Amino acid sequence: MAKPSSTATSNGRTNGSESPHGTTMSISSTVLEKIEVKRSATAPRLSDADRRVLDRVTVVVGCWQLALTAVTTVAAFSVWPLVAQLEGRATVGVHWFGPDFRVTALSGALILGVIGGVAGSLVHTITIFSSRVGRDTLEASFLWWYLLRPFAAALLALLFVAAVQSGLVAVGGKPESLVLAFVAGGLAGLFTDAVLQKLRGFLGATSTQMTASSQDVPLAAPPHEQGTTPTAA
User: Fold this and answer.
1) Which residue in 42, 149, 170, 210 has a CA-CA distance of 20 to 30 Å to 106?
2) Distance of alpha carbon 150 from alpha carbon 138, whole angstroms
3) Tens digit of pLDDT for each residue in 205-221?
4) Is the pLDDT of residue 44 over 70?
């Protein structure tokens, strides 16, 4: 009996050529190894106790963002038609849970601005949260940042929409436009961190990279200059 012209070897080669299955498995294992090395380099090593804490924080933040997204969406679709009724009218009566009250055009725009601010903040925080969880770089110490940022965005949106409505800030479109109020609030919520970072020096805020007690207030004079009167050059 004639011997076969090709012999299979244990390393996946036949007739001097590499098997396609062996090549695919080799490439897949190499890619997985690179991913694991990159992930281990970026993700901090946690103890079992810290990992359990981080898992709880992940669940809390995820549930909080899902619940707030649902509430914000329902509020937007509920308030918008109500405020739209103000066209040609001074006030509109609101009959929700609790005492009844009346909404004016200005208060309706402010409410829409606040809802837009929370919506814009959620776009930002959900994107960061999902990316951090996927890359395993989420830190448990940032729990309160995720919980409180929508409220900071809502307050900033309230101030921004009030400035637009009063004419202090000029933007395109009619100031009384409902779409403008919602979009202005949404932009304020989306760029809350950028706006506050720009205003940090004017507000006299200290850097969050170090403890507040170890820093001088930016607007305060250095200790060696306090109590002195500047002289003309």
Assistant:
1) 149
2) 18
3) 666 677 767 777 554 44
4) no
The tens digit of pLDDT for each residue in 174-191 reads: 656 778 888 889 988 998
Domain span holding position 195: 49-206
Residue 216 lies in a domain: no
Interatomic CA distance for residues 61 and 69, integer angstroms = 12
pTM of the model: 0.67
What is the rounded distance in angstroms from the CA atom of residue 216 to the CA atom of residue 184?
35
Query: Distance between alpha carbon 8 and the CA centroid of its chain, in Å?
Result: 56
Domain membership flag for residue 141? yes
Q: What is the mean pLDDT of the chain?
A: 75
Residue by residue, DSSP assigns the chain as -PPPS--B-TTSEETTEE-HHHHHHHHHHHHHHHHHHHHHHHSPP--HHHHHHHHHHHHHHHHHHHHHHHHHHHHHHHHHHHHHTTTT-SEEEE--SSS-EEEEHHHHHHHHHHHHHHHHHHHHHHHHHHHHHHHT---GGGHHHHHHHHHHHHHHHHHHHHHHHHTSS--SS-TT-HHHHHHHHHHHHHTHHHHHHHHHHHHTPPPTTS-GGGS--TTSPPGGGTT------
Q: In this structure, are residues 117 and 78 in contact, taking their beta carbons and an 8 Å threshold?
A: no
* Max Cα-Cα span within the chain: 110
Mean pLDDT over 104-115 rounds to: 86
User: Per the structure, how many domains does the chain have?
Assistant: 1
Is residue 224 one of the residues assigned to a domain?
no
